[in-house]
Amino acid sequence: MAVPFFLFFFLNVLTAFDILRMQCDLTAAMHQVGNRIAIHRFEAVYAEDVIAGVATSLDPEATGEDQAQHGNPVLNTLLDAGSVMYAQSAIVDYLGADYLDRSPVVNGSSGLSFLASDISGESERIDLVCSYQVRPLFGWIRFFPFRMENRYFGHAWVGYEGGFVQKKKKDKKEEIVYITETGTVYHRSRGCTHLDLSIRATTYTQALSDRNEGGAKYHACERCGGSPKEGSTVYVTDYGNRYHNSLSCSGLKRTVMEIPISEAGSRAPCSKCGMKHNT
Description:
Blueprint: H1 2-58, H2 64-68, H3 73-95, H4 97-102, E1 118-120, E2 125-134, E3 146-155, E4 176-180, E5 185-186, E6 200-203, H5 204-209, E7 219-220, E8 233-236, E9 242-243, E10 256-260, E11 268-269
Parallel strand pairs: 5-11, 7-9
Antiparallel strand pairs: 1-2, 2-3, 4-10, 6-8
Helix pairs in contact: 1-3
């Protein structure tokens, strides 16, 4: 009695290994085909953009907005559906129809279903899902076929900056402005004199009587101004309204940052360089 039980156990182990081998082969095939689709989809979209660009350049009535448009939704949908059909055919060719027909897959090569796959140009996603049922290696080992699933998930090959997503308009290059850490205005010119401190040394007595370039008086710096002695050296700037006892005062430092104008927030334009040209 032990021999039949041993043979039954051994044959079931062979069936499990056969199913595992088939699943690994199918996974390898899906990775090969998925990577191939990632490249081909980029080539297809690139060719579409070139054709669209030539067409709009030859159209005398085409506007700048027309030339900035890319992609045809209908064509993209057809590409998505065609890519799924291509994946199924390529995977069967990769593994071989004879191999699949002899494998544990129910109905062989025609038993592979890719209906749950999603290859989307909008999301730049390649999601191949292959579902199938498996049966025992030997027909007289009875168990009910059960469903299995293999999956490949990847991103379309779109380059460093992307570009597979079809945009109706190219993003306009945003104006760059300059700000300081504590400033309340933004500057359109990096060479604005309000960004250049132009530090000069003077006496405390002279600073009290001097005026800056805007006509304002100098007052003691809240950080280092203190109460300097009469005749001692202090430091002023052409457009600032504070005198400083120390050159290392943070009030004499400027950390100038470049930001898009949309990030300027509540900062007003500089009275000197902010109104030179329109955005």
